Amino acid sequence: MIPRHRQFADADDTHMKHQNLYPVANRCRLVVLLIMLAGLGGCVSAGSNPDPLENFNRSIHNFNDSADRRVLKPLAQGYRALTPDPLERGIRNVFSNLDDPQVFLNQLLQGKPGLALSDLGRFLVNSTVGIGGLFDVASTMGLEKHQEDFGQTFARWGFGRGAYLVIPFWGPSNPRDGIGDILGSYTFPPRYLDDVPTRNVIYGLSVINRRANLLDAENIVSGDRYIFFREAYLQRREFLINDGEVEDDFLDDDF
Amino acid sequence: MKKTITRISNKCVVVVLVGFAMTGFAQDPLELDQTMKTKLLDILAAVNESSAESAAKLDAAIDFQAITRGVMGKHAKGSTQAQNSRFQAEFQKSMIRLLQAATETAGDYTIEVSGTKISPKNPERGQASARVRTSDGQEIDLVSSIAVVDGEWKVRNLIFAGVNLGKTYRNQFDQLVQANQGDLDQAIEAWAQQVKNPAE
After folding, report:
1. What angle do CA B183, B95, B132 make, to 5 degrees?
2. Is the ipTM of this complex over 0.90?
3. How far apart are alpha carbons B3 and A249 in whole angstroms?
4. Radius of gyration (Cα) for chain B, nearest Å?
5. What number of other Cβ atoms are within 10 A of residue A51's Cβ?
6. Closest CA in chain B for residue A241
7. Distance CA B50, CA B59 (A)
8. Residue among A12, A15, A11, A18 at smallest CA distance from A172
9. HSE, side-chain direction, 13 A CA sphere, residue A71
10. pTM
11. How many Å apart are CA A172 and CA A236, to the nearest integer?
12. What are phi and psi of A3, to 5 degrees?
């Protein structure tokens, strides 16, 4: 079960990335691709409406939300209650580190060699001195964590995002980010582990870790949850694509 | 002679006053950083108190009226004064609740204002960028859109980690109006109900 629909408010650097497709999603890849094609179709006929598939999306959102409430959220709460804080932080750092190869690659693809070098440096320093990423030594050295992925790269290259899509067991997405996520899953180092049980444990832990990090952010969700998640997702992605530059036109329109 | 001097000095006063008015709020950027840091800390502290003093602090730091109008968006055009005030009261509650939840989540947080910029088009509009560090080591980018209102800088929108609260609220309000077939009173009532019983 993948908590993508919670991802929007993830303030922690580690988990905004969509680098991993987990086993369930792997099996559903065809379904996901079909849904994305539907999203592209929606986009063609959508005009200015960012969410032409709202009815479909709402039903998937409700499904994801209730699955989350029954299974993933309690697991994440248990994990948080049982894991000592320093260990929890260490695990968060490890996954953040495993995301850095994707960040490095996408900095290059976006023509930012300086930042790419810095992110490669982060990965090397944290993997060695930081004991497999357990400690984020690189940040204290001034090598700041960045957030890049294939979806952002496609946006930089000029591809449109297509219609907003909520994907079962996955959460908010769109064709551009979804295809980016599939590519990104190949940059997640544990994917290449031969030992299947170990790999599965790592995948499982990464899901729970990410969900646990969103437990707090959830506090600020109010009103219509579907709209909150959708807006938060779209805005957050825009923010990441623009590397954190905010152009706020909230009160520019003269109502 | 005396008259001329008076006239000249009067002119000087006028020139100086106009000069002040023109510089307006062209504050020293570092000073503005500090002002904004104080305002943000004020806001985050005041939402967790409920005294006349904390309410006054919030009013001095947040332009609730402009934000409310922005959230009503296109529906503000046809609204009555009574509807505006009612919605402002309800909206204010939801915004304060959200900030309470945010501070509760953040634990012992610190705020560092990394920079403020003034709009090149309008010296009374700007943006303050801050980074909030929560007690468990997470970092959240917090951007505030600011404007000079009644002689001081006030917050007119907040963007948490890229999530634009004003716009999110506006879409939610629009959704409520649509769900109530364009009836503003009912939409505002529905908002009030959500404030009373936040859905879980």
Report:
1. 145
2. no
3. 52
4. 21
5. 22
6. B162
7. 13
8. A18
9. 12
10. 0.80
11. 11
12. -90, 45
H or E stretch covering B91: helix B81-106
Backbone angles phi, psi at B126, to 5 degrees: -165, -170
Place of tokens 């934000």: B67
Closest CA to B195 of B179, B172, B178: B172
* Tens digits of pLDDT across chain B (200 residues): 555 555 655 555 555 444 444 444 556 767 888 888 888 888 888 888 888 888 888 988 999 999 999 999 999 988 999 999 999 999 999 999 888 888 888 888 888 888 888 888 888 899 999 999 888 778 889 999 999 998 889 999 999 999 999 999 999 999 999 999 999 999 999 999 988 776 54
Is A12 in the B-facing interface, judged by CB distances under 8 Å? yes
Q: Which helix (H) or strand (E) holds B156?
A: strand B152-160
Q: Which two tokens stand for residue A218?
A: 């959830």
Nearest to A156 by CA among A113, A117, A106: A106
DSSP percent split of chain A into helix, strand, coil, nearest 5: 65, 0, 30
Percent helix, strand and coil across chain B, each rounded to 5?
60, 20, 20
Q: What is the length of chain B?
A: 200
Contacts of B78 in chain A (CB under 8 A): none
What's the rounded Cα separation, in Å, for the pair A198 and A204? Answer: 10
Whole-number Å distance between alpha carbons of B60 and B65 = 12
A8–chain B Cβ distance below 8 A for any pair: yes
The Cα–Cα gap between A156 and B41 comes to: 36
Report the C-alpha dihedral over residues A226, A232, A234, A236, rounded to 10 degrees.
-160
Which residues 133-162 of chain B have a CB within 8 Å of chain A? 134, 136-141, 143, 145, 147, 156-157, 159-162
User: B137: which chain A residues are within 8 Å (Cβ-Cβ)?
Assistant: 89
